[in-house]
């Protein structure tokens, strides 16, 4: 059974450790804040100038003035702070963020990421993604394994304009958890009910497979 977007976020939330500062990108990554363990202290940062984001608000409790970088309404936790973009990117560039979670259109086997532009389509620009991938030492990508046409987005080499080179450490999709190693993608976990063969078929890049591959624990 392939995971849905919330289940991908739930699996990535397991990578968040106590006292981490975490930047959440647009898309699936924003959902991670909903699933972090309650017994750890985590500070979620949004590049538009928020430190201390909480889960998404319940319907009817939204504050239109409190948003993340994707212009979604958010909640803040006690002690949260607000600041300008210059301060926010100073924090990012100074490598004060322990974990960066981004969405992507493509990831290559050497850790390149393409997540900002599809040629021929109008885009507003790269935004803060370039700073994040240039500065972060621990990047996890949350993405779908294949596109709407069923074509793999886990590639030997990216075909879209790159955001960053050799920067991704781990990828979590609806099918699998993969680590980027010097030898390529290493398959770590598979979605419940999904076979290794199905993952291989959906992956254009070569996969390193060692021993039995366990199912993800997303409970």
From TrEMBL:
One Gene Ontology molecular-function label: CoA-transferase activity
Q: Output the SUPFAM superfamilies linked to this UniProt entry.
A: NagB/RpiA/CoA transferase-like
Keyword annotations of the record? Transferase
Transferase in keyword set? yes
Q: Does the keyword Methyltransferase apply?
A: no
What family does this belong to?
Answer: Belongs to the 3-oxoacid CoA-transferase subunit B family.
Identify this protein by name. 3-oxoacid CoA-transferase subunit B
Q: Source species, please? A: Flavobacterium cauense R2A-7
